[in-house]
Amino acid sequence: MLALLVSLRVKNKQLSNKIKVGGVSYLNTIPLLYGIQHSPVMESIELSVDYPSILARQLQEGIIDVALLPVAAMSTIPGARIISDYGIGADATVASVAIFSNVPMEEVDTVYLDYQSRTSVMLARLLLRDYWEKDVIYKQAPENFIELIQDNIAGVIIGDRALQQLAGFHFVYDLSLAWKEHTGLPFVFAAWVANRDLPEDFISQFNQANAAGLNYIDKIVAATPYPYYDLKKYYTENIHYLLDDEKKKGLNKFRELIQTL
User: Fold this and answer.
1) DSSP 244
2) Closest by CA position to 171, among listed 159, 188, 187, 157
3) pLDDT value of position 6
4) Which residue among 56, 126, 160, 231 has the highest number of C-beta atoms inside a 10 angstrom radius?
5) What is the per-residue pLDDT across 43-77, written as a single tens digit (0 to 9) for each?
6) In the CATH hierarchy, which fold is given to the domain comprising 3-91+187-249?
7) How does DSSP assign 116-184, residue by residue?
8) Which segment of 1-5, 188-192, 240-244 scores lowest on mean pLDDT?
């Protein structure tokens, strides 16, 4: 299913002067990574993929130079700056970031927090406090936490695993939709963030590569069999890749509100 990404884990291990770029190993990033992999920009970068939380740590420690970073982690990166007009956003339902439960929200008293992304966890905490007005117990999720979502215990599940669980629970509370209803703004989950100044010609080429990947949605869907969700709908309706002015407003609003947590 993720054959487009597999080779990235073992490429370019040697030291070089190339710009080290970290992408995310989720379905929603395949169009962006496809554009990068099929662009001349590949000649100037080392590309790897991992979970968002790991990329944040790598960028913080200077192991990589650019990451598709959860926006909540930007404050932890010295010199963080967004370098592209593309990222992972949504305007209402995103499908792959939600609170899953077998009881309605008013009965939930405990929530497991997915360990893979800081942004989704902080968004969940913010919405539980301000939108659903819930005072719950938070627990850090172990690897098997989906099995522990039962009775009055809910869980934040993100990424491909969330898509796989959409039919598995009685209640699914989409966090991007809740954010839209709460603020009237779209939401940005991740953006391409650098930890230092990069050449302008590289930034331009990198931006063009991201944009180009969106021209191959049909090809990507055909090459990525996925029984759990309609990927054409996911890529063209749920995920919004262009970080336009409204999304930047949503991003700034989120970064402002999470300071109150």
Assistant:
1) -
2) 157
3) 39
4) 56
5) 999 999 998 888 999 999 999 999 999 999 999 99
6) D-Maltodextrin-Binding Protein; domain 2 (3.40.190)
7) T-HHHHHHHHHHHHHTS----EEEE--TTGGGG--TTEEEEEEHHHHHHHTTTSSEEEEHHHHHHHHHS
8) 1-5
